[in-house]
Protein backbone atom coordinates (compact mmCIF):
# COMPACT_ATOMS: atom_id res chain seq x y z
CA UNK A 1 0.00 0.00 0.00
CA UNK A 2 1.16 3.55 -0.64
CA UNK A 3 2.38 5.92 2.02
CA UNK A 4 -0.17 8.27 3.57
CA UNK A 5 0.98 11.34 1.63
CA UNK A 6 1.88 11.93 -1.98
CA UNK A 7 2.97 14.69 -4.33
CA UNK A 8 0.39 16.46 -6.48
CA UNK A 9 -0.05 19.67 -8.47
CA UNK A 10 -2.74 21.98 -7.10
CA UNK A 11 -4.33 25.36 -7.73
CA UNK A 12 -4.97 27.73 -4.83
CA UNK A 13 -5.82 30.64 -7.11
CA UNK A 14 -6.63 31.21 -10.76
CA UNK A 15 -4.15 32.58 -13.23
CA UNK A 16 -1.39 31.57 -15.63
CA UNK A 17 0.88 28.52 -15.46
CA UNK A 18 2.71 30.09 -12.53
CA UNK A 19 -0.21 29.28 -10.17
CA UNK A 20 0.41 25.52 -10.47
CA UNK A 21 1.94 24.35 -7.17
CA UNK A 22 3.73 21.05 -6.62
CA UNK A 23 3.04 20.05 -3.04
CA UNK A 24 2.41 17.27 -0.54
CA UNK A 25 -1.18 16.14 0.04
CA UNK A 26 -2.95 13.11 1.53
CA UNK A 27 -3.31 9.96 -0.56
CA UNK A 28 -7.01 9.53 -1.48
CA UNK A 29 -8.98 6.49 -0.41
CA UNK A 30 -11.18 4.75 -2.98
CA UNK A 31 -14.88 4.95 -2.25
CA UNK A 32 -17.67 2.68 -3.50
CA UNK A 33 -17.24 1.85 -7.17
CA UNK A 34 -13.66 3.14 -7.21
CA UNK A 35 -10.11 1.86 -7.44
CA UNK A 36 -6.92 3.50 -6.25
CA UNK A 37 -4.52 4.02 -9.16
CA UNK A 38 -0.80 4.67 -8.88
CA UNK A 39 -0.39 7.22 -11.67
CA UNK A 40 2.46 6.66 -14.12
CA UNK A 41 1.48 9.42 -16.56
CA UNK A 42 -1.20 12.09 -16.91
CA UNK A 43 -2.34 13.61 -20.18
CA UNK A 44 -2.82 17.37 -20.53
CA UNK A 45 -5.99 18.75 -22.14
CA UNK A 46 -7.61 22.17 -22.71
CA UNK A 47 -9.97 21.79 -19.71
CA UNK A 48 -6.86 21.74 -17.51
CA UNK A 49 -6.04 25.32 -18.40
CA UNK A 50 -9.70 26.30 -18.39
CA UNK A 51 -9.92 25.35 -14.71
CA UNK A 52 -6.55 26.97 -14.05
CA UNK A 53 -7.63 30.35 -15.44
CA UNK A 54 -11.12 30.22 -13.90
CA UNK A 55 -13.13 29.27 -17.00
CA UNK A 56 -12.87 32.78 -18.43
CA UNK A 57 -13.33 31.49 -22.00
CA UNK A 58 -16.62 29.70 -21.24
CA UNK A 59 -20.07 31.29 -20.98
CA UNK A 60 -20.97 31.72 -17.29
CA UNK A 61 -24.00 29.45 -17.57
CA UNK A 62 -21.84 26.53 -18.80
CA UNK A 63 -19.08 26.80 -16.19
CA UNK A 64 -18.91 23.79 -13.85
CA UNK A 65 -18.77 24.60 -10.15
CA UNK A 66 -15.71 23.70 -8.13
CA UNK A 67 -13.86 24.96 -5.10
CA UNK A 68 -10.19 25.77 -4.60
CA UNK A 69 -7.74 24.27 -3.94
CA UNK A 70 -8.16 21.80 -6.78
CA UNK A 71 -5.88 19.25 -8.45
CA UNK A 72 -6.25 19.57 -12.24
CA UNK A 73 -6.25 16.73 -14.74
CA UNK A 74 -8.63 14.18 -16.19
CA UNK A 75 -6.45 11.69 -18.10
CA UNK A 76 -4.23 9.02 -16.58
CA UNK A 77 -2.45 5.77 -17.15
CA UNK A 78 -1.24 3.74 -14.20
CA UNK A 79 -1.50 0.63 -12.07
CA UNK A 80 -4.31 -0.41 -9.73
CA UNK A 81 -3.13 -0.35 -6.09
CA UNK A 82 -6.42 -1.07 -4.27
CA UNK A 83 -9.98 -1.99 -5.21
CA UNK A 84 -13.23 -1.16 -3.41
CA UNK A 85 -15.23 -4.19 -2.27
CA UNK A 86 -18.03 -3.57 -4.76
CA UNK A 87 -15.81 -3.33 -7.86
CA UNK A 88 -15.63 -6.20 -10.32
CA UNK A 89 -13.46 -6.31 -13.41
CA UNK A 90 -10.23 -4.85 -12.01
CA UNK A 91 -7.61 -6.35 -9.73
CA UNK A 92 -4.57 -5.02 -7.92
CA UNK A 93 -1.71 -4.86 -10.42
CA UNK A 94 -3.87 -4.19 -13.49
CA UNK A 95 -2.53 -1.54 -15.84
CA UNK A 96 -5.38 0.87 -16.63
CA UNK A 97 -6.08 4.16 -18.38
CA UNK A 98 -9.03 6.51 -18.28
CA UNK A 99 -10.78 9.87 -18.48
CA UNK A 100 -12.00 10.55 -14.95
CA UNK A 101 -15.35 12.10 -14.00
CA UNK A 102 -15.59 14.34 -17.03
CA UNK A 103 -17.33 16.77 -17.64
CA UNK A 104 -16.84 17.61 -13.98
CA UNK A 105 -13.46 19.00 -12.96
CA UNK A 106 -12.51 16.66 -10.13
CA UNK A 107 -10.49 14.08 -12.02
CA UNK A 108 -7.39 15.12 -10.04
CA UNK A 109 -4.90 13.21 -12.20
CA UNK A 110 -1.93 15.58 -11.71
CA UNK A 111 -0.93 13.43 -8.75
CA UNK A 112 0.93 10.29 -7.73
CA UNK A 113 -2.30 8.50 -6.73
CA UNK A 114 -5.93 8.92 -7.79
CA UNK A 115 -9.19 7.40 -6.60
CA UNK A 116 -10.82 6.59 -9.93
CA UNK A 117 -14.37 5.44 -10.78
CA UNK A 118 -13.99 1.94 -12.16
CA UNK A 119 -16.58 2.73 -14.85
CA UNK A 120 -14.26 5.40 -16.28
CA UNK A 121 -11.33 2.99 -16.73
CA UNK A 122 -10.25 0.34 -19.20
CA UNK A 123 -7.28 -2.00 -19.29
CA UNK A 124 -4.31 -0.19 -20.81
CA UNK A 125 -3.38 -1.35 -24.31
CA UNK A 126 -0.42 -3.70 -23.90
CA UNK A 127 1.21 -2.46 -27.13
CA UNK A 128 1.85 1.07 -25.83
CA UNK A 129 3.55 2.49 -22.74
CA UNK A 130 1.96 4.56 -19.98
CA UNK A 131 3.02 7.87 -21.56
CA UNK A 132 1.20 7.16 -24.80
CA UNK A 133 -1.76 5.61 -23.00
CA UNK A 134 -2.16 8.78 -20.91
CA UNK A 135 -2.39 10.78 -24.12
CA UNK A 136 -5.42 8.83 -25.32
CA UNK A 137 -8.52 9.23 -23.12
CA UNK A 138 -10.02 12.69 -23.57
CA UNK A 139 -8.77 13.34 -27.10
CA UNK A 140 -9.60 9.91 -28.49
CA UNK A 141 -12.99 9.74 -26.74
CA UNK A 142 -13.82 13.16 -28.17
CA UNK A 143 -13.05 11.91 -31.67
CA UNK A 144 -14.98 8.67 -31.00
CA UNK A 145 -18.10 10.38 -29.61
CA UNK A 146 -18.18 12.95 -32.42
CA UNK A 147 -17.50 10.49 -35.26
CA UNK A 148 -18.28 6.91 -34.25
CA UNK A 149 -20.71 6.54 -31.33
CA UNK A 150 -22.04 9.12 -28.91
CA UNK A 151 -22.57 6.59 -26.15
CA UNK A 152 -24.68 8.76 -23.84
CA UNK A 153 -27.95 10.69 -23.72
CA UNK A 154 -26.71 13.83 -21.99
CA UNK A 155 -27.53 17.05 -23.84
CA UNK A 156 -24.80 19.41 -24.89
CA UNK A 157 -24.71 22.70 -22.95
CA UNK A 158 -24.34 24.47 -26.31
CA UNK A 159 -27.35 23.14 -28.23
CA UNK A 160 -30.75 21.52 -27.82
CA UNK A 161 -30.41 18.94 -30.58
CA UNK A 162 -28.85 15.58 -29.75
CA UNK A 163 -25.58 15.02 -31.57
CA UNK A 164 -25.63 12.18 -34.09
CA UNK A 165 -22.44 10.93 -35.75
CA UNK A 166 -22.47 10.66 -39.55
CA UNK A 167 -22.03 7.13 -40.96
CA UNK A 168 -18.54 6.94 -42.47
CA UNK A 169 -17.56 4.73 -45.38
CA UNK A 170 -15.58 4.78 -48.62
CA UNK A 171 -18.00 7.26 -50.16
CA UNK A 172 -17.66 9.83 -47.38
CA UNK A 173 -15.53 12.95 -47.85
CA UNK A 174 -14.30 14.36 -44.54
CA UNK A 175 -12.25 17.45 -43.70
CA UNK A 176 -10.54 17.68 -40.32
CA UNK A 177 -9.39 21.12 -39.24
CA UNK A 178 -6.59 21.07 -36.67
CA UNK A 179 -5.70 17.56 -37.77
CA UNK A 180 -2.29 17.44 -36.10
CA UNK A 181 -3.59 18.11 -32.58
CA UNK A 182 -4.77 15.67 -29.96
CA UNK A 183 -8.37 15.24 -31.14
CA UNK A 184 -7.49 15.82 -34.77
CA UNK A 185 -4.89 13.09 -35.19
CA UNK A 186 -7.21 10.53 -33.56
CA UNK A 187 -10.17 11.69 -35.67
CA UNK A 188 -8.14 11.33 -38.86
CA UNK A 189 -7.24 7.75 -38.01
CA UNK A 190 -10.76 6.79 -36.98
CA UNK A 191 -12.21 8.23 -40.19
CA UNK A 192 -9.64 6.29 -42.23
CA UNK A 193 -10.45 3.14 -40.22
CA UNK A 194 -14.03 3.52 -41.48
CA UNK A 195 -12.79 4.00 -45.05
CA UNK A 196 -13.52 7.72 -45.52
CA UNK A 197 -11.55 10.08 -47.76
CA UNK A 198 -9.89 12.56 -45.39
CA UNK A 199 -8.53 16.03 -46.05
CA UNK A 200 -6.29 17.21 -43.21
CA UNK A 201 -5.86 20.91 -42.42
CA UNK A 202 -2.78 21.98 -40.43
CA UNK A 203 0.39 24.04 -40.83
CA UNK A 204 2.87 22.84 -43.43
CA UNK A 205 5.32 21.29 -41.00
CA UNK A 206 2.76 18.62 -40.11
CA UNK A 207 2.09 17.37 -43.66
CA UNK A 208 4.43 14.36 -43.63
CA UNK A 209 3.12 13.32 -40.19
CA UNK A 210 -0.52 13.51 -41.31
CA UNK A 211 0.14 11.74 -44.60
CA UNK A 212 1.76 8.94 -42.59
CA UNK A 213 -1.41 8.67 -40.50
CA UNK A 214 -3.43 8.23 -43.69
CA UNK A 215 -4.52 11.68 -44.86
CA UNK A 216 -5.59 11.56 -48.52
CA UNK A 217 -5.22 15.32 -49.03
CA UNK A 218 -3.56 18.12 -47.11
CA UNK A 219 -4.17 21.87 -46.88
CA UNK A 220 -1.57 24.14 -45.32
CA UNK A 221 -3.69 26.85 -43.72
CA UNK A 222 -0.69 29.19 -43.52
CA UNK A 223 -0.60 29.31 -47.33
CA UNK A 224 -4.22 28.71 -48.37
CA UNK A 225 -7.65 29.26 -46.89
CA UNK A 226 -9.20 25.79 -46.65
CA UNK A 227 -12.72 27.16 -47.03
CA UNK A 228 -11.73 28.48 -50.47
CA UNK A 229 -10.30 25.14 -51.64
CA UNK A 230 -12.40 22.32 -50.20
CA UNK A 231 -15.79 21.61 -51.81
CA UNK A 232 -18.58 19.01 -51.81
CA UNK A 233 -17.67 17.60 -48.41
CA UNK A 234 -19.95 15.31 -46.44
CA UNK A 235 -18.49 16.24 -43.07
CA UNK A 236 -16.25 18.84 -41.48
CA UNK A 237 -14.85 18.11 -38.02
CA UNK A 238 -13.42 21.40 -36.79
CA UNK A 239 -11.27 20.66 -33.75
CA UNK A 240 -10.37 24.35 -33.50
CA UNK A 241 -13.95 25.63 -33.61
CA UNK A 242 -14.93 28.93 -32.11
CA UNK A 243 -16.25 32.08 -33.82
CA UNK A 244 -14.53 31.42 -37.16
CA UNK A 245 -15.95 27.93 -37.56
CA UNK A 246 -18.83 29.14 -39.76
CA UNK A 247 -16.36 29.64 -42.62
CA UNK A 248 -16.42 25.89 -43.30
CA UNK A 249 -20.17 25.74 -43.96
CA UNK A 250 -19.83 26.47 -47.67
CA UNK A 251 -17.38 23.61 -48.15
CA UNK A 252 -20.23 21.18 -47.49
CA UNK A 253 -22.61 19.67 -50.01
CA UNK A 254 -26.32 19.89 -49.26
CA UNK A 255 -27.10 17.33 -46.59
CA UNK A 256 -23.60 17.64 -45.16
CA UNK A 257 -22.68 18.06 -41.51
CA UNK A 258 -20.41 20.40 -39.61
CA UNK A 259 -19.13 19.31 -36.18
CA UNK A 260 -17.31 22.07 -34.25
CA UNK A 261 -15.55 20.64 -31.19
CA UNK A 262 -15.52 24.10 -29.57
CA UNK A 263 -18.92 25.50 -30.38
CA UNK A 264 -19.11 28.92 -31.97
CA UNK A 265 -21.83 31.25 -33.25
CA UNK A 266 -24.02 29.78 -35.98
CA UNK A 267 -27.13 31.08 -37.71
CA UNK A 268 -29.87 28.46 -37.96
CA UNK A 269 -31.41 30.24 -40.95
CA UNK A 270 -28.08 30.15 -42.79
CA UNK A 271 -27.68 26.45 -41.96
CA UNK A 272 -31.17 25.72 -43.29
CA UNK A 273 -30.57 27.73 -46.46
CA UNK A 274 -27.37 25.82 -47.16
CA UNK A 275 -29.06 22.52 -46.27
CA UNK A 276 -26.43 21.55 -43.70
CA UNK A 277 -26.50 20.34 -40.10
CA UNK A 278 -24.35 21.87 -37.38
CA UNK A 279 -24.09 19.86 -34.20
CA UNK A 280 -21.69 19.02 -31.41
CA UNK A 281 -21.44 17.29 -28.09
CA UNK A 282 -19.47 17.37 -24.87
CA UNK A 283 -17.16 14.43 -24.34
CA UNK A 284 -17.98 12.27 -21.33
CA UNK A 285 -16.06 9.57 -19.48
CA UNK A 286 -16.72 6.10 -20.87
CA UNK A 287 -14.65 3.07 -19.93
CA UNK A 288 -16.43 0.78 -22.41
CA UNK A 289 -15.56 3.04 -25.34
CA UNK A 290 -11.97 3.25 -24.12
CA UNK A 291 -11.84 -0.54 -24.18
CA UNK A 292 -12.84 -0.44 -27.86
CA UNK A 293 -10.15 2.15 -28.54
CA UNK A 294 -7.65 -0.04 -26.69
CA UNK A 295 -8.26 -2.82 -29.19
CA UNK A 296 -7.53 -0.43 -32.07
CA UNK A 297 -4.38 0.75 -30.32
CA UNK A 298 -3.21 -2.80 -29.69
CA UNK A 299 -3.78 -3.75 -33.33
CA UNK A 300 -1.83 -0.72 -34.54
CA UNK A 301 -4.89 0.64 -36.34
CA UNK A 302 -4.67 3.80 -34.23
CA UNK A 303 -1.44 5.39 -33.01
CA UNK A 304 -0.72 8.02 -30.35
CA UNK A 305 1.55 10.95 -31.15
CA UNK A 306 3.31 12.54 -28.17
CA UNK A 307 4.36 16.14 -28.66
CA UNK A 308 6.40 16.38 -25.45
CA UNK A 309 6.67 15.07 -21.90
CA UNK A 310 7.36 16.84 -18.60
CA UNK A 311 7.83 15.52 -15.06
CA UNK A 312 4.84 16.13 -12.80
CA UNK A 313 6.85 18.70 -10.86
CA UNK A 314 7.19 20.71 -14.09
CA UNK A 315 3.47 21.01 -14.83
CA UNK A 316 3.99 24.76 -15.23
CA UNK A 317 6.41 24.18 -18.11
CA UNK A 318 3.93 21.75 -19.69
CA UNK A 319 1.19 24.39 -19.60
CA UNK A 320 3.60 26.95 -21.05
CA UNK A 321 4.30 24.52 -23.91
CA UNK A 322 0.56 24.15 -24.50
CA UNK A 323 0.12 27.92 -24.61
CA UNK A 324 2.63 28.18 -27.47
CA UNK A 325 0.34 26.06 -29.68
CA UNK A 326 1.20 24.15 -32.86
CA UNK A 327 1.07 20.92 -30.87
CA UNK A 328 1.59 17.58 -32.63
CA UNK A 329 -0.41 15.01 -30.71
CA UNK A 330 -0.40 15.16 -26.93
CA UNK A 331 1.53 16.71 -24.06
CA UNK A 332 1.99 14.29 -21.15
CA UNK A 333 3.16 14.56 -17.55
CA UNK A 334 5.30 11.70 -16.27
CA UNK A 335 5.03 10.59 -12.65
CA UNK A 336 8.09 8.98 -11.06
In short:
The protein has 336 residues and is an alpha/beta fold. The chain contains nine helices and 15 strands.
Task: Summarize the structure in words.
The protein is α/β, with parallel strands linked by helices and 336 residues long. The chain has 2 domains: 5-138 and 284-334, Alpha-Beta Complex (Quinone Oxidoreductase, Chain A, domain 1), CATH 3.90.180.10; 155-278, 3-Layer(aba) Sandwich (Rossmann fold), CATH 3.40.50. It is built from 9 helices and 15 strands. It is globular. The relative contact order is 0.17. The mean pLDDT is 95.
Q: Which key phrases capture this entry?
A:
2 domains; 9 helices; seven-stranded mixed β-sheet; 22% helix; Rossmann fold; alpha/beta; Quinone Oxidoreductase, Chain A, domain 1; 336 residues; six-stranded parallel β-sheet
Q: How would a crystallographer describe the biggest sheet? A: 7 strands, mixed
| Text of the CATH class of the largest domain | Alpha Beta
Name the helix and strand elements from N-terminus to C-terminus, one letter apiece. EEEHEEEEHHEHEHEHEEHEHEHE
| Sheet/helix structural class | alpha/beta
Gyration radius (Cα, Å) is 20 Å
Q: What's the CATH H-level homologous superfamily of the largest domain?
A: Medium-chain alcohol dehydrogenases, catalytic domain
- What is the number of independent domains? 2
Distance between the termini: 16 Å
Helix content estimate: 10-25%
Write the layout of secondary structure elements.
Elements: E1 5-11, E2 20-26, E3 34-43, H1 46-52, E4 75-83, E5 95-99, E6 113-117, E7 121-123, H2 130-134, H3 137-147, E8 173-177, H4 182-193, E9 197-202, H5 207-212, E10 217-220, H6 226-229, E11 233-238, E12 252-260, H7 268-274, E13 277-278, H8 287-299, E14 306-311, H9 315-324, E15 330-334
Parallel strand pairs: 8-9, 8-11, 9-10, 11-12, 12-13, 14-15
Antiparallel strand pairs: 1-2, 3-4, 3-6, 3-15, 4-5, 5-7
